[in-house]
Amino acid sequence: MPETVPETAPGTVPRSRLRLRAALICVALQFQATRAGASAMFGTAVAAGLLPAFGAWLGKLLFDEIGRGGDADTARATYLALSVAAVGALTALLQQLAGYLDEVVRQRLVVAVEDRLFARVNEFRGLRFFESPAFHDRLRLAQEAAQDAPHNITMFSQLSVQAVATVSGFTGVLLAVWPPMVGLLFLSGGAALVAQLFQARRQAEVSEIVSGKYRRRLFYRGLLTDPRAAKEIRLFGLGGFLHSRLVTALGDATDAELRVARRGTLVQSGFALLNAAVTGLGTVIVATGAAQGRFSVGDVTLFIAAAAGIQSTFGGFVMQAGMAVEGIRLFGHYLDVMELPDDLRTAAEESDGSAPVRPLARGIELRDVWFRYDDSGPWVLRGVDLTVPAGAAVGLVGRNGAGKSTLVKLLCRFYDPVRGSILWDGVDLRALDVEELRRRIGVTFQDHMAYDLTAQENIGVGDLPRLEDREGVRAAAREAEIDEKLAGLPSGYDTLLSRVQVDDYDAAPGVTLSGGQWQRVALARSLMRRDSELLILDEPSSALDAQAEHDINRTLRAHREGRTSLLVSHRLSALRDADVIVVLEDGAVVETGTHDALMSEQGRYAHLFAVQAAGYQDARVGEASPVSEATAGER
Ligand SMILES: Nc1ncnc2c1ncn2[C@@H]1O[C@H](COP(=O)(O)OP(=O)(O)OP(=O)(O)O)[C@@H](O)[C@H]1O
């Protein structure tokens, strides 16, 4: 595997760490999402945090004024009373505004995060990440964390401002009455904070551990409602089975979440008791002092209020600190995904991977190509040497699992060979600009897509700049023998090829095609690139009826004329006229030659051909085919 592939592919989600950088970027993300909204939210949050303290100070001035009895200035007292009321009203309004601004920032963040994350995902040029469960889990964690963490940090900032104002006010009161109480409250608050931070770490770890369970849950949920899966689920009676797996996956995840919540509750309950003990102790001491005449009743009342105020402020602060820390930890996944190096080697040793791709003049050569999907997996290609000469039609045959589609994927550079190299006119594919390379290739994949888009779009996406080019799309559809069918749909080429993705329930329903019709649409899509240098067709006619296959093979033969093509097929008759036929067995090339040459060799190809021909002649190969008899010994 290339050295640049990081530890996320495949494996489990690595544990996140608390990073200052993550916290800073997390806060900055809000401003990138909406500078005005985030600034207003922060300003409002700070003001909403400071106003209660200001209100308390005005209240103190009011009580001081009233306390002067007959000497009190009525106008000043009235003014102060109105000010207290105004500050109260303003605080309430600011809280409403802060709530709205918080929502604005959240919504903008959702868009910004999706935008950035999926733009990044689009930059990964190979397939490895998309086949890694750890990558999918990280992506989900990254998305959730990037949407939630900034909010938690903002709330934490707001509470911090409030806490400083409230606690410093109340601390003065406590210091005046019984100073050791301040130390006791700070000690118990500090201990609760430390415990909460540990709890936050545990909570973040559990989110990482259960992310796979949630992925499975989404998979089962999607399957249970997928119209393509509905037939088998009903026929084989899989509904209950899948449903129970869905519930089990969800149950496992929620059990783990509940375990950590239980632990948190126990720890917090312990601190609640400690707080009660501290308050009790302080109250007893101050009350005893009052009984002995050292404190007034007012002192006792103020003391109890101050202690309760500090404790509840600490409680909120500690809780929010835990959420902020958990958010920042998980936000690390967002950074990791954003900074993940590409899964393809960025360059061959001697190049930076951006060499222009010249029109194919000599051909494509695979030199001793070894490949496996995982470091520990079996070799799928074992030293393949193969040449696709420019302008030639090459047929690739082999039994299931021989490695044919893998070879196709390597030609498109979805993966790099583990050993050996693939050369485009003598230049290593790793040295070439991969996007340009792919623009020069037209492919029909064996597992082609059926997009829930219109007929026009389903074909047009094969050459995006010509997405709206109706004539170009129809020409490709004609070659794939599907034009008549698509033109005859209720809205012609504008018909949605989907039963479920219709936006307007009252509009004409979408339609769905048959398996063979979908295959023709996929074929038409690959034929959109009329000037492609290399045409690869991986089982393009496996779902076609005999007549359609015959017609399409004739059209494709004309289309391939003079251009380089690689045709993978189990229907050997489709390959008869290829310039070269290559037989792949267990990941190695075992035979190469024209149809006639390979038939006369009476090897693997001749055997496969005879088996197929015998099927059509209604005869048993072992008895009827001289080729089979000749090759039986080899096998
Ligand atoms: N993405 C993947 N990850 C891991 N293993 C894979 C992957 N794709 C294919 N394989 C394995 O590689 C081997 C070759 O598969 P490949 O699809 O290339 O065979 P094929 O010759 O095209 O077969 P078929 O004729 O059935 O289409 C198989 O054993 C398969 O299990």
Automatic annotation (TrEMBL):
It is a multi-pass membrane protein. Residues 364-611 form the ABC transporter domain. The keyword Membrane applies. InterPro entries: AAA+_ATPase, ABC1_TM_dom, ABC1_TM_sf, ABC_transporter-like_ATP-bd, ABC_transporter-like_CS, P-loop_NTPase, Type_1_exporter. It holds the Pfam family ABC_tran. GO terms for molecular function: ATP binding. The chain crosses the membrane at residues 38-58, 79-98, 177-198, 271-291. Keywords: ATP-binding, Membrane, Nucleotide-binding, Transmembrane, Transmembrane helix. Coiled coil: none annotated. Residues 40-326 form the ABC transmembrane type-1 domain. SUPFAM superfamilies: ABC transporter transmembrane region (SSF90123), P-loop containing nucleoside triphosphate hydrolases (SSF52540). SMART domains: AAA. It is found in: Cell membrane. This is ABC transporter ATP-binding protein. It comes from Streptomyces albiaxialis.
